[in-house]
Amino acid sequence: MRKRHAERTTGSGRPLRVLLTTDWWEPVVNGVVASVATLRRELIALGCDVRVLTLASGLRTRNEDGVYRIGSVSAGMVYDRARIGMPASKRVLREILRWHPDVIHSHCEFSSHMWARKIARALDVPIVHTYHTIYEDYTHYYSPSRTVGRKVVATFSRRVLDGTDAVVVPTEKVARLLAGYGVTRPQYVIPTGLDLDRFRPARTEAELRDAAELRAGLGIRSDQRVLLSVARLAKEKNLDEVIDLVAGAGREDSVLVLVGDGPYREELVAHAAARGVSDRVVFAGVVDPAEVQRWYRIGDLFVSASLSETQGLTFIEAMACGLPLLCRRDPSLARVVVDGRTGWQYDGAADFAAHLDQMLGDDLLRAAMSHEGVAHVHATFGSRAFGSSVLSVYRSAIERRSPLRVLALEPLAA
Protein backbone atom coordinates (compact mmCIF):
# COMPACT_ATOMS: atom_id res chain seq x y z
CA MET A 1 0.00 0.00 0.00
CA ARG A 2 1.27 3.47 -0.89
CA LYS A 3 2.71 5.50 1.99
CA ARG A 4 1.06 8.83 2.63
CA HIS A 5 0.49 10.86 5.79
CA ALA A 6 1.79 10.00 9.21
CA GLU A 7 -0.32 7.50 11.09
CA ARG A 8 -3.54 8.99 12.48
CA THR A 9 -3.47 8.31 16.18
CA THR A 10 -5.37 8.86 19.36
CA GLY A 11 -3.84 10.04 22.61
CA SER A 12 -2.88 6.47 23.51
CA GLY A 13 -0.72 6.25 20.38
CA ARG A 14 -3.03 3.86 18.56
CA PRO A 15 -4.55 4.55 15.12
CA LEU A 16 -7.87 6.37 14.95
CA ARG A 17 -10.60 3.71 14.93
CA VAL A 18 -13.40 4.18 12.40
CA LEU A 19 -16.48 1.97 12.09
CA LEU A 20 -18.24 2.22 8.72
CA THR A 21 -21.83 0.93 8.69
CA THR A 22 -23.78 0.14 5.51
CA ASP A 23 -26.68 -2.05 4.43
CA TRP A 24 -24.93 -2.59 1.09
CA TRP A 25 -21.53 -4.18 0.57
CA GLU A 26 -19.61 -6.25 -1.94
CA PRO A 27 -20.41 -8.18 -4.09
CA VAL A 28 -23.41 -5.85 -4.61
CA VAL A 29 -22.65 -3.18 -7.24
CA ASN A 30 -24.03 0.31 -6.60
CA GLY A 31 -22.87 3.82 -5.76
CA VAL A 32 -23.04 3.30 -2.00
CA VAL A 33 -20.76 0.25 -2.14
CA ALA A 34 -18.31 2.05 -4.43
CA SER A 35 -18.20 5.08 -2.14
CA VAL A 36 -17.77 3.12 1.11
CA ALA A 37 -15.13 0.81 -0.39
CA THR A 38 -13.16 3.82 -1.65
CA LEU A 39 -13.41 5.57 1.70
CA ARG A 40 -12.31 2.48 3.58
CA ARG A 41 -9.24 2.12 1.36
CA GLU A 42 -8.29 5.79 1.70
CA LEU A 43 -8.75 5.90 5.48
CA ILE A 44 -6.55 2.83 5.86
CA ALA A 45 -3.94 4.50 3.64
CA LEU A 46 -4.13 7.52 5.95
CA GLY A 47 -3.25 5.31 8.91
CA CYS A 48 -6.71 4.68 10.40
CA ASP A 49 -7.92 1.37 11.82
CA VAL A 50 -11.15 0.75 9.85
CA ARG A 51 -13.84 -1.90 10.21
CA VAL A 52 -17.16 -2.35 8.38
CA LEU A 53 -20.52 -3.41 9.82
CA THR A 54 -22.93 -4.60 7.12
CA LEU A 55 -25.57 -7.23 6.24
CA ALA A 56 -24.88 -10.83 5.34
CA SER A 57 -26.57 -12.38 2.32
CA GLY A 58 -28.21 -14.93 4.62
CA LEU A 59 -28.99 -15.65 8.25
CA ARG A 60 -25.45 -16.49 9.34
CA THR A 61 -23.47 -13.73 11.08
CA ARG A 62 -19.73 -13.72 10.46
CA ASN A 63 -16.60 -11.58 10.65
CA GLU A 64 -14.06 -11.72 7.85
CA ASP A 65 -11.07 -9.39 7.47
CA GLY A 66 -12.58 -6.61 9.54
CA VAL A 67 -16.00 -6.82 7.87
CA TYR A 68 -18.82 -7.84 10.23
CA ARG A 69 -21.75 -9.31 8.30
CA ILE A 70 -24.92 -9.47 10.39
CA GLY A 71 -27.52 -12.09 9.46
CA SER A 72 -30.40 -10.71 7.39
CA VAL A 73 -33.55 -11.64 5.48
CA SER A 74 -34.60 -10.56 2.01
CA ALA A 75 -36.62 -7.38 1.49
CA GLY A 76 -36.82 -7.91 -2.25
CA MET A 77 -40.56 -7.28 -2.22
CA VAL A 78 -39.79 -3.66 -1.34
CA TYR A 79 -36.62 -3.10 -3.40
CA ASP A 80 -34.62 -5.48 -5.54
CA ARG A 81 -31.78 -7.18 -3.59
CA ALA A 82 -32.53 -5.16 -0.43
CA ARG A 83 -32.23 -6.93 2.92
CA ILE A 84 -33.36 -6.34 6.50
CA GLY A 85 -30.94 -7.09 9.32
CA MET A 86 -31.83 -9.48 12.09
CA PRO A 87 -31.21 -8.45 15.72
CA ALA A 88 -27.50 -7.83 15.83
CA SER A 89 -25.33 -10.61 17.17
CA LYS A 90 -24.43 -9.95 20.82
CA ARG A 91 -21.01 -11.44 20.18
CA VAL A 92 -20.34 -9.01 17.32
CA LEU A 93 -21.60 -6.05 19.30
CA ARG A 94 -19.44 -7.00 22.30
CA GLU A 95 -16.42 -7.28 20.03
CA ILE A 96 -17.07 -3.85 18.48
CA LEU A 97 -17.59 -2.29 21.91
CA ARG A 98 -14.30 -3.78 23.13
CA TRP A 99 -12.55 -2.46 20.03
CA HIS A 100 -14.12 0.95 20.84
CA PRO A 101 -14.27 2.98 17.61
CA ASP A 102 -13.54 6.69 17.99
CA VAL A 103 -16.13 7.66 15.38
CA ILE A 104 -18.90 5.85 13.53
CA HIS A 105 -19.67 6.70 9.90
CA SER A 106 -23.11 5.50 8.80
CA HIS A 107 -23.92 5.16 5.08
CA CYS A 108 -27.49 3.83 5.06
CA GLU A 109 -30.60 4.88 6.93
CA PHE A 110 -32.08 1.50 7.83
CA SER A 111 -30.79 -1.67 9.59
CA SER A 112 -27.11 -0.78 9.88
CA HIS A 113 -27.93 2.79 10.96
CA MET A 114 -29.87 1.50 13.97
CA TRP A 115 -26.80 -0.45 15.07
CA ALA A 116 -24.60 2.59 14.43
CA ARG A 117 -26.73 4.70 16.76
CA LYS A 118 -26.82 2.00 19.42
CA ILE A 119 -23.03 1.67 19.41
CA ALA A 120 -22.52 5.45 19.35
CA ARG A 121 -24.76 5.87 22.40
CA ALA A 122 -23.08 3.06 24.28
CA LEU A 123 -19.60 4.51 23.71
CA ASP A 124 -20.52 8.21 23.65
CA VAL A 125 -18.73 8.73 20.33
CA PRO A 126 -19.85 10.88 17.38
CA ILE A 127 -21.80 9.48 14.46
CA VAL A 128 -21.27 10.93 10.98
CA HIS A 129 -23.73 10.05 8.24
CA THR A 130 -23.43 10.22 4.45
CA TYR A 131 -26.74 10.82 2.69
CA HIS A 132 -26.32 8.84 -0.54
CA THR A 133 -29.87 8.44 -1.85
CA ILE A 134 -32.54 10.94 -2.93
CA TYR A 135 -35.47 8.87 -1.74
CA GLU A 136 -38.16 11.07 -3.21
CA ASP A 137 -37.05 9.81 -6.63
CA TYR A 138 -38.05 6.32 -5.46
CA THR A 139 -41.64 7.12 -4.41
CA HIS A 140 -43.02 4.69 -7.03
CA TYR A 141 -41.83 1.86 -4.78
CA TYR A 142 -43.82 2.88 -1.70
CA SER A 143 -46.37 5.63 -2.45
CA PRO A 144 -48.90 6.26 -5.24
CA SER A 145 -48.54 9.99 -4.63
CA ARG A 146 -45.23 11.80 -5.17
CA THR A 147 -46.39 14.65 -2.91
CA VAL A 148 -47.21 12.29 -0.05
CA GLY A 149 -44.03 10.36 -0.72
CA ARG A 150 -41.93 13.51 -0.49
CA LYS A 151 -43.47 14.43 2.87
CA VAL A 152 -42.74 10.94 4.17
CA VAL A 153 -39.13 11.20 2.93
CA ALA A 154 -38.66 14.66 4.47
CA THR A 155 -39.91 13.53 7.89
CA PHE A 156 -37.92 10.29 7.78
CA SER A 157 -34.69 12.00 6.67
CA ARG A 158 -34.99 14.74 9.28
CA ARG A 159 -35.52 12.23 12.10
CA VAL A 160 -32.56 10.09 11.00
CA LEU A 161 -30.16 12.99 10.50
CA ASP A 162 -31.14 14.90 13.64
CA GLY A 163 -29.58 12.03 15.60
CA THR A 164 -26.16 12.50 13.99
CA ASP A 165 -23.21 14.78 14.70
CA ALA A 166 -22.50 15.67 11.06
CA VAL A 167 -23.86 14.94 7.60
CA VAL A 168 -21.76 14.38 4.48
CA VAL A 169 -23.43 15.02 1.10
CA PRO A 170 -21.85 14.55 -2.33
CA THR A 171 -23.26 17.69 -3.99
CA GLU A 172 -24.78 21.10 -3.26
CA LYS A 173 -28.03 19.76 -4.74
CA VAL A 174 -28.36 17.27 -1.89
CA ALA A 175 -27.38 19.91 0.69
CA ARG A 176 -30.19 22.18 -0.54
CA LEU A 177 -32.62 19.26 -0.53
CA LEU A 178 -31.85 18.42 3.10
CA ALA A 179 -32.12 22.06 4.12
CA GLY A 180 -35.58 22.03 2.56
CA TYR A 181 -36.44 19.00 4.67
CA GLY A 182 -35.56 20.98 7.79
CA VAL A 183 -32.26 19.20 8.55
CA THR A 184 -30.16 21.40 10.83
CA ARG A 185 -27.10 19.27 11.53
CA PRO A 186 -23.73 20.50 10.17
CA GLN A 187 -23.38 19.53 6.50
CA TYR A 188 -20.20 18.99 4.47
CA VAL A 189 -20.22 18.75 0.67
CA ILE A 190 -17.60 16.12 -0.24
CA PRO A 191 -17.77 14.39 -3.64
CA THR A 192 -16.90 10.70 -3.55
CA GLY A 193 -13.37 10.16 -4.79
CA LEU A 194 -12.26 7.78 -7.50
CA ASP A 195 -9.36 5.34 -7.76
CA LEU A 196 -7.62 6.94 -10.72
CA ASP A 197 -5.07 4.14 -10.97
CA ARG A 198 -7.94 1.87 -11.94
CA PHE A 199 -10.35 4.11 -13.83
CA ARG A 200 -8.42 5.44 -16.81
CA PRO A 201 -8.45 5.15 -20.60
CA ALA A 202 -6.95 2.08 -22.27
CA ARG A 203 -3.20 2.60 -22.49
CA THR A 204 -1.68 -0.64 -23.70
CA GLU A 205 -2.13 -2.82 -26.76
CA ALA A 206 -3.57 -5.51 -24.49
CA GLU A 207 -6.19 -3.10 -23.08
CA LEU A 208 -7.15 -1.86 -26.54
CA ARG A 209 -7.43 -5.43 -27.78
CA ASP A 210 -9.53 -6.35 -24.74
CA ALA A 211 -11.99 -3.52 -25.48
CA ALA A 212 -12.26 -4.62 -29.11
CA GLU A 213 -12.91 -8.20 -28.04
CA LEU A 214 -15.63 -7.13 -25.59
CA ARG A 215 -17.35 -5.14 -28.35
CA ALA A 216 -17.11 -8.05 -30.76
CA GLY A 217 -18.51 -10.39 -28.10
CA LEU A 218 -21.62 -8.18 -27.95
CA GLY A 219 -22.01 -8.35 -31.72
CA ILE A 220 -20.89 -4.75 -32.29
CA ARG A 221 -19.12 -4.00 -35.57
CA SER A 222 -15.87 -2.05 -35.57
CA ASP A 223 -17.50 0.79 -37.56
CA GLN A 224 -20.34 1.28 -35.05
CA ARG A 225 -20.31 3.89 -32.30
CA VAL A 226 -21.11 2.74 -28.76
CA LEU A 227 -23.36 4.85 -26.54
CA LEU A 228 -22.73 3.38 -23.10
CA SER A 229 -24.78 3.40 -19.91
CA VAL A 230 -23.70 1.70 -16.67
CA ALA A 231 -26.65 1.57 -14.31
CA ARG A 232 -29.04 -0.58 -12.39
CA LEU A 233 -31.97 -1.36 -14.68
CA ALA A 234 -34.60 0.24 -12.49
CA LYS A 235 -37.44 2.64 -13.25
CA GLU A 236 -35.81 5.61 -11.51
CA LYS A 237 -32.82 5.48 -13.89
CA ASN A 238 -35.16 6.66 -16.69
CA LEU A 239 -33.61 4.38 -19.31
CA ASP A 240 -36.89 4.40 -21.27
CA GLU A 241 -36.04 7.97 -22.19
CA VAL A 242 -32.54 7.01 -23.33
CA ILE A 243 -34.02 4.39 -25.64
CA ASP A 244 -36.54 6.94 -26.95
CA LEU A 245 -33.76 9.45 -27.59
CA VAL A 246 -31.59 6.92 -29.40
CA ALA A 247 -34.55 5.84 -31.52
CA GLY A 248 -35.47 9.44 -32.32
CA ALA A 249 -31.94 10.57 -33.13
CA GLY A 250 -31.80 8.30 -36.17
CA ARG A 251 -28.10 7.50 -35.86
CA GLU A 252 -28.05 4.09 -37.50
CA ASP A 253 -24.29 3.93 -36.93
CA SER A 254 -24.73 3.90 -33.13
CA VAL A 255 -25.48 1.13 -30.62
CA LEU A 256 -26.77 1.66 -27.09
CA VAL A 257 -25.09 -0.72 -24.62
CA LEU A 258 -26.72 -1.05 -21.19
CA VAL A 259 -24.33 -2.52 -18.62
CA GLY A 260 -26.16 -3.72 -15.52
CA ASP A 261 -29.31 -5.57 -14.56
CA GLY A 262 -32.36 -5.02 -12.42
CA PRO A 263 -36.12 -5.40 -12.04
CA TYR A 264 -36.96 -3.16 -15.03
CA ARG A 265 -35.04 -5.16 -17.63
CA GLU A 266 -38.04 -6.90 -19.23
CA GLU A 267 -39.87 -3.59 -19.61
CA LEU A 268 -36.81 -2.04 -21.27
CA VAL A 269 -36.44 -4.96 -23.67
CA ALA A 270 -40.11 -4.57 -24.62
CA HIS A 271 -39.71 -0.81 -24.95
CA ALA A 272 -36.76 -1.16 -27.32
CA ALA A 273 -38.81 -3.58 -29.42
CA ALA A 274 -41.79 -1.20 -29.48
CA ARG A 275 -39.51 1.64 -30.68
CA GLY A 276 -38.03 -0.61 -33.37
CA VAL A 277 -34.45 -0.44 -32.09
CA SER A 278 -33.96 -3.92 -30.61
CA ASP A 279 -31.09 -4.44 -33.02
CA ARG A 280 -29.36 -1.31 -31.66
CA VAL A 281 -29.91 -1.80 -27.92
CA VAL A 282 -27.62 -4.34 -26.29
CA PHE A 283 -28.20 -5.63 -22.75
CA ALA A 284 -24.75 -6.61 -21.49
CA GLY A 285 -25.98 -7.71 -18.04
CA VAL A 286 -24.15 -7.55 -14.73
CA VAL A 287 -20.37 -7.41 -14.83
CA ASP A 288 -17.78 -8.06 -12.14
CA PRO A 289 -17.31 -4.81 -10.16
CA ALA A 290 -13.55 -5.32 -10.29
CA GLU A 291 -13.75 -5.41 -14.10
CA VAL A 292 -16.20 -2.58 -14.79
CA GLN A 293 -13.44 -0.27 -16.06
CA ARG A 294 -12.96 -2.67 -19.00
CA TRP A 295 -16.57 -2.08 -20.03
CA TYR A 296 -16.32 1.70 -19.89
CA ARG A 297 -13.50 1.44 -22.42
CA ILE A 298 -15.77 -0.08 -25.09
CA GLY A 299 -17.76 3.18 -25.29
CA ASP A 300 -17.49 6.28 -27.45
CA LEU A 301 -19.92 8.32 -25.31
CA PHE A 302 -21.60 7.88 -21.94
CA VAL A 303 -25.33 8.63 -22.01
CA SER A 304 -27.91 8.99 -19.23
CA ALA A 305 -31.36 10.47 -18.60
CA SER A 306 -31.37 9.77 -14.85
CA LEU A 307 -32.51 12.45 -12.43
CA SER A 308 -32.11 10.27 -9.34
CA GLU A 309 -28.35 10.70 -8.93
CA THR A 310 -26.88 12.27 -5.82
CA GLN A 311 -23.51 12.69 -7.51
CA GLY A 312 -23.34 10.55 -10.63
CA LEU A 313 -20.42 8.30 -9.68
CA THR A 314 -20.74 6.20 -12.85
CA PHE A 315 -20.57 9.43 -14.86
CA ILE A 316 -17.26 10.26 -13.19
CA GLU A 317 -15.94 6.73 -13.71
CA ALA A 318 -16.86 6.94 -17.40
CA MET A 319 -15.17 10.31 -17.78
CA ALA A 320 -12.03 9.01 -16.05
CA CYS A 321 -11.96 6.20 -18.62
CA GLY A 322 -12.02 8.74 -21.46
CA LEU A 323 -15.72 8.96 -22.36
CA PRO A 324 -17.35 12.33 -23.02
CA LEU A 325 -20.78 12.65 -21.37
CA LEU A 326 -24.23 13.32 -22.86
CA CYS A 327 -26.68 13.51 -19.96
CA ARG A 328 -30.01 15.02 -19.06
CA ARG A 329 -29.55 18.38 -17.33
CA ASP A 330 -29.53 18.01 -13.54
CA PRO A 331 -28.04 20.11 -10.70
CA SER A 332 -26.23 17.06 -9.31
CA LEU A 333 -24.00 17.09 -12.40
CA ALA A 334 -22.93 20.72 -12.07
CA ARG A 335 -19.37 19.77 -11.08
CA VAL A 336 -19.22 16.79 -13.45
CA VAL A 337 -20.38 17.90 -16.90
CA VAL A 338 -18.67 21.06 -18.11
CA ASP A 339 -20.74 21.89 -21.17
CA GLY A 340 -18.70 21.92 -24.36
CA ARG A 341 -15.58 20.65 -22.58
CA THR A 342 -16.28 17.30 -20.88
CA GLY A 343 -19.58 16.72 -22.70
CA TRP A 344 -23.06 18.18 -22.72
CA GLN A 345 -26.19 18.28 -20.60
CA TYR A 346 -29.24 18.17 -22.87
CA ASP A 347 -32.64 19.77 -22.32
CA GLY A 348 -34.84 17.78 -24.71
CA ALA A 349 -34.90 15.34 -27.62
CA ALA A 350 -33.82 17.91 -30.22
CA ASP A 351 -30.96 19.06 -27.99
CA PHE A 352 -29.85 15.45 -27.45
CA ALA A 353 -29.89 14.69 -31.18
CA ALA A 354 -27.95 17.85 -32.06
CA HIS A 355 -25.22 17.18 -29.51
CA LEU A 356 -25.07 13.50 -30.49
CA ASP A 357 -24.55 14.42 -34.16
CA GLN A 358 -21.90 16.95 -33.21
CA MET A 359 -19.96 14.57 -30.98
CA LEU A 360 -20.17 11.50 -33.19
CA GLY A 361 -19.47 13.51 -36.33
CA ASP A 362 -16.25 15.14 -35.13
CA ASP A 363 -13.51 12.75 -34.00
CA LEU A 364 -11.20 15.62 -33.03
CA LEU A 365 -13.87 17.22 -30.83
CA ARG A 366 -14.63 13.91 -29.14
CA ALA A 367 -10.92 13.29 -28.53
CA ALA A 368 -10.52 16.78 -27.05
CA MET A 369 -13.52 16.22 -24.75
CA SER A 370 -12.07 12.87 -23.71
CA HIS A 371 -8.75 14.49 -22.78
CA GLU A 372 -10.47 17.39 -20.99
CA GLY A 373 -12.68 14.99 -19.05
CA VAL A 374 -9.78 12.91 -17.78
CA ALA A 375 -7.97 16.06 -16.67
CA HIS A 376 -11.13 17.35 -14.95
CA VAL A 377 -11.57 14.12 -12.99
CA HIS A 378 -7.96 14.18 -11.81
CA ALA A 379 -8.32 17.79 -10.68
CA THR A 380 -11.67 17.38 -8.94
CA PHE A 381 -12.48 13.79 -7.97
CA GLY A 382 -9.33 12.09 -6.71
CA SER A 383 -9.85 9.59 -3.91
CA ARG A 384 -6.98 10.93 -1.79
CA ALA A 385 -8.65 14.30 -1.31
CA PHE A 386 -11.90 12.46 -0.54
CA GLY A 387 -10.34 10.50 2.31
CA SER A 388 -8.59 13.54 3.76
CA SER A 389 -11.77 15.63 3.63
CA VAL A 390 -13.82 12.99 5.44
CA LEU A 391 -11.09 12.65 8.05
CA SER A 392 -11.42 16.39 8.72
CA VAL A 393 -15.16 15.91 9.29
CA TYR A 394 -14.38 13.25 11.90
CA ARG A 395 -12.08 15.66 13.69
CA SER A 396 -14.71 18.40 13.74
CA ALA A 397 -17.37 16.00 15.02
CA ILE A 398 -15.09 14.77 17.82
CA GLU A 399 -14.17 18.35 18.74
CA ARG A 400 -17.81 19.45 18.98
CA ARG A 401 -18.69 16.50 21.16
CA SER A 402 -15.59 16.62 23.36
CA PRO A 403 -13.33 19.70 23.01
CA LEU A 404 -10.79 18.24 25.43
CA ARG A 405 -10.55 14.94 23.57
CA VAL A 406 -9.60 16.62 20.31
CA LEU A 407 -6.36 17.75 21.94
CA ALA A 408 -5.34 14.10 21.90
CA LEU A 409 -6.09 13.95 18.15
CA GLU A 410 -3.86 16.69 16.85
CA PRO A 411 -2.33 14.47 14.16
CA LEU A 412 -5.76 14.60 12.47
CA ALA A 413 -5.22 18.26 11.74
CA ALA A 414 -2.22 17.56 9.51
From TrEMBL:
Keyword hit for Transferase: yes
Segments forming domain Glycosyltransferase subfamily 4-like N-terminal: 29-198
Keywords (A to Z) from UniProt: Glycosyltransferase, Transferase
Domain Glycosyl transferase family: start-end pairs: 212-372
Keyword Transferase among UniProt keywords: yes
Cited PANTHER family: SULFOQUINOVOSYL TRANSFERASE SQD2 (PTHR45947:SF3)
Name of the protein this chain belongs to: D-inositol 3-phosphate glycosyltransferase
Organism: Brachybacterium rhamnosum
